[in-house]
TrEMBL record:
It comes from Marinomonas communis. The lineage of its organism: Bacteria, Pseudomonadati, Pseudomonadota, Gammaproteobacteria, Oceanospirillales. The keyword tRNA processing does not apply. Residues 31-305 form the Pyruvate carboxyltransferase domain. GO terms for biological process: L-leucine biosynthetic process. This is 2-isopropylmalate synthase.
C-alpha cells in the first residue's frame, strides 16, 4: 500500500493577530544583510569547503558589499576554527565588516568560540537553542522552563566571555531555533529572557534572529508571526529583528520579503540559495527583487558571473539555468512573440528613460549580460528573433519584408537540426538564399551615363563566357533592371528597396535589400559593396540570378 497519504499531516496553527499592518507596507530600503554561506551553506554541503575555498568565498562576500558575514561554527570543527584565526591574525576583515560565528548554548562550545575570535576587531557571537514543541518534547525532553534556562545560561556565558575581551566590539545574537515550530508567545518569552541578560540599548543593540528553520506555512502566516513578535517583544527599540528563512516550501524569499514588511530589520541568507535541505533564502534574488523596483539593495551584483563561478566552485553545486536573475537562460527568449516584443521595446529603450521592456524585468547589462544572449533562435522563434540576432552580431538591419522571407527558412533549418541556431548559421542561410549576385552571373565593369534618361552598360561574367547588357531608365537601378529584363527576356519590377551603411565589421560599406517581382514571382536579393549604387544593382542581379537558376533547374527537370 502506498504511504502517499495527506491525512497524516497537520496544518500549521496560525498566530492570533488582529489588525495586521504588514500587507500595507512596502520595501523601500535595504535591510541589514548577513551572509550565512560559510556556515549554514557550508554545513549543508556534501564536501564542506576547504580553508582556501572559504577564503575565496569570503572575499566575494566582502566585494559584493556584505557588512555581516557568518564565517563558521568554530567550536565544531578545526577547519572553521583555523579559518577564523586566519581572518583575525592575517587582518583579512575590513574595518566596517563584522564576522559572525555560531555556537550552541553550551559553555564549553562558547568558550572555544571566543578563543577563535581572540583579537577580532568586530564580531557577532550567535548563540542558539531550539525552542519548538517537537524539539522540546522529543530531542531535549525538557519543558518550557528547561528550554528557557538553556537560552538564559547560554546568553550569560556569552556575556561573561565578551567582558573578558573588551578590545573587541561585540554584538550578541540569539536565535530561538525552529521559531516557526514554536508557539510565538513562547518564542517572545525566551527572547525576552535573553534580552534581560544582555540588557541592550538603542545605542548598543543585540540581534534577535527568528529562523524559519523549516518553512512550515505560507509567507503571509510567517509575516503574521513576525509582526506579532515585534509587537510583543521587550525593548523593541534596542533589538535588531533578523530573519533567517529556509526554502522548504519554495517560498524562502517571499517569506523574508513579507517578514521585512512585518517589521524585521535584518535578513540572513546565502548567495544563490545553498543551505540545509532545499536551501536558505537566496540573497541574490531578494536583493535583485528590490533593485528591479528601483530600491538600492546595498549589495552589488554587477558581476553576476563571478558570483556564479565562485559559488559553484566552492559548493560544487550547479546553478539552475532558470535561477532568478542569475541563471543562464533567464534573459533568453526563444518564442517568437516574446522575441518580437523584446526587439521592439529594446529599439525604443534609451538610457534616459525608465526601463520598460516586455519580458525583461531588468536590463541584462546591469549584471554583466549582453543583449546578444537575450534572443536565441530555435523552432519556436519568429522573425523578430532572427532579425535581432543578425542585427546584433552583424549589423544587418533587415527590412520587415525580408524578415518575413528569412524566418521560415531559419525555422525549417532549426526543425531539421533540432536545436538552437547560432547567429553564424542564420547568416549563412541569409547569404545562401539572398546574396546571390555572384552566380550564375556576376557584375563586372559597368558604366553609368545620364542624358535625358539614365543609361547603363554592364559586363556580366559567367563561367561559360561574359556578356554585355545595356538599358535605360529613370535612375541607375531602373536602367539596370531594364537591361536585365531585355537580356533574359523577363519582366523585372522592383517592389521593395532598402539600404543602409554597415556598422559592424566594415568601415564604409553599404548594403542594399531588394524585393523584385519577376514574371509574377517574388525574389529577394541582397548585396554589399563599397558604394550604394554598386550594392543596389548587384542586389537586383541577385534576384535575377535566382530566377535564372530556377528556370535552368526547371529545364533540366
Ligand atoms: C538549524 C541549524 O542549522 S543549527 C546549526 C547546526 N549545525 C551544526 O550542528 C554543525 C556543527 N555541529 C557539530 O559539529 C556538532 O553538533 C558539535 C561539534 C557542535 C557538537 O557535537 P556533540 O557534542 O556531539 O553534540 P550534538 O550536536 O550531537 O548535540 C547533542 C547534545 O547537545 C544538545 N544541544 C543541541 N543543540 C544545542 C544547543 N543549541 N544548545 C544547547 N544544547 C544543545 C542536545 O540536546 C544534545 O544533548 P544530550 O547529549 O544531552 O542529548
Ligand atoms: C542556527 C539557525 C539560525 C539556523 O540556521 C536555522 O534555524 O535554520
Ligand atoms: Mg539555517
Amino acid at each position: 500500500m502506498s504511504s502517499f497519504d495527506h491525512t497524516k499531516y497537520r496544518p500549521f496553527e496560525p498566530v492570533a493577530i488582529e489588525n495586521r499592518t504588514w500587507p500595507d507596507q512596502e520595501i523601500t530600503t535595504a535591510p541589514i544583510w548577513a551572509s550565512v554561506d560559510l556556515r549554514d551553506g557550508n554545513q549543508a554541503l556534501v564536501e564542506p569547503m576547504t580553508v582556501d575555498q572559504k577564503k575565496e568565498f569570503f572575499k566575494l562576500l566582502v566585494d559584493v558589499g556584505f557588512k555581516e558575514i557568518e564565517v563558521g561554527f568554530p567550536a565544531a570543527s578545526q577547519l572553521d576554527f583555523d579559518f577564523v584565526r586566519w581572518l583575525v591574525e592575517e587582518d583579512q576583515v575590513p574595518d566596517d565588516v563584522y564576522i559572525q560565528v555560531l555556537t550552541q548554548a553550551r559553555p564549553e562550545l562558547i568558550e572555544r568560540t571566543y578563543e577563535s575570535l581572540k583579537g577580532a576587531k568586530k564580531a557577532v557571537v550567535h548563540v542558539y537553542n531550539s525552542t519548538s514543541k517537537t524539539q522540546r518534547e522529543q530531542v531535549f525532553r525538557l519543558g518550557k522552563d528547561g528550554i528557557k534556562e538553556i537560552a538564559v545560561k547560554g546568553a550569560q556565558c556569552v556575556k561573561e566571555h565578551a567582558a573578558k575581551h573588551p578590545e573587541t566590539e561585540w554584538v550578541f545574537q540569539y536565535s530561538p531555533e525552529s521559531f516557526t515550530g514554536t508557539e510565538t508567545d513562547f518564542a517572545v518569552e525566551v527572547c525576552d529572557a535573553v534580552i534581560d541578560v544582555w540588557q541592550p540599548t538603542p545605542e548598543n543593540k543585540c540581534i534577535i534572529n527568528l529562523p524559519a528553520t523549516v518553512e512550515v506555512t505560507t509567507p503571509n502566516r510567517f509575516a503574521d508571526q513576525i509582526e506579532y513578535f515585534c509587537r510583543k517583544v521587550k525593548n523593541r527599540d534596542s533589538i535588531i529583528v533578523s530573519l533567517h528563512t529556509h526554502n522548504d516550501r519554495g517560498c524562502g524569499v517571499a517569506a523574508a520579503e513579507l517578514g521585512l514588511m512585518a517589521g524585521a530589520d535584518r535578513i540572513e541568507g546565502t548567495l544563490l540559495g545553498n543551505g540545509e535541505r532545499t536551501g536558505n533564502m537566496c540573497v541574490v534574488t531578494m536583493a535583485m527583487n528590490m533593485y528591479s523596483q528601483g530600491v538600492n539593495p546595498e549589495l552589488n551584483f554587477a558581476d553576476m558571473d563571478r558570483v556564479i563561478s565562485v559559488v559553484q566552485s566552492c559548493t560544487q553545486l550547479p546553478v539552475h539555468p532558470r535561477h532568478a536573475y542569475a541563471g543562464e537562460l533567464v534573459f533568453t527568449a526563444f518564442s517568437g512573440s516574446h522575441q518580437d516584443a523584446i526587439k521592439k521595446c529594446l529599439a525604443n529603450q534609451t538610457d534616459d528613460k525608465p526601463w520598460d521592456v516586455a519580458y525583461l524585468p531588468i536590463d541584462p547589462r546591469d549584471i554583466g549580460r549582453s543583449y546578444q544572449e537575450v534572443i536565441r533562435v530555435n523552432s519556436q522563434s519568429g522573425k523578430g528573433g532572427v532579425a535581432f540576432a543578425l542585427e546584433q552580431e552583424y549589423g544587418l538591419a533587415l527590412p520587415r519584408w525580408l524578415q518575413v522571407e528569412l524566418s521560415p527558412i531559419v525555422q525549417r533549418f532549426s526543425e531539421e537540426d533540432g536545436g538552437v541556431i547560432e547567429a553564424a548559421d542564420m547568416k549563412r542561410l541569409f547569404e545562401e538564399n539572398f546574396m546571390t549576385a555572384s552566380a550564375p552571373y556576376a557584375l563586372g565593369n559597368y558604366e553609368l551615363s545620364k542624358k535625358d534618361r539614365d543609361s547603363v552598360t554592364a559586363e556580366l561574367t559567367h563561367k561559360d563566357g561574359n556578356i554585355s547588357v545595356q538599358g535605360e531608365g529613370n535612375g541607375a537601378l531602373s536602367a539596370f533592371t531594364s537591361a536585365l529584363s531585355e537580356q533574359f527576356n523577363i519582366r523585372v519590377d522592383i517592389v521593395q528597396y532598402q539600404e543602409h551603411a554597415l556598422t559592424v565589421g566594415s568601415d564604409s560599406q553599404a548594403i542594399a535589400y531588394i524585393q523584385a517581382n519577376i514574371d509574377g514571382e517574388r525574389y529577394n536579393g541582397v548585396a554589399i559593396d563599397n558604394d550604394i549604387v554598386s550594392a543596389s544593382i548587384q542586389a537586383v542581379l541577385a534576384t535575377v540570378n535566382q530566377k535564372v537558376s530556377a528556370s535552368e533547374q526547371a529545364n533540366v527537370a
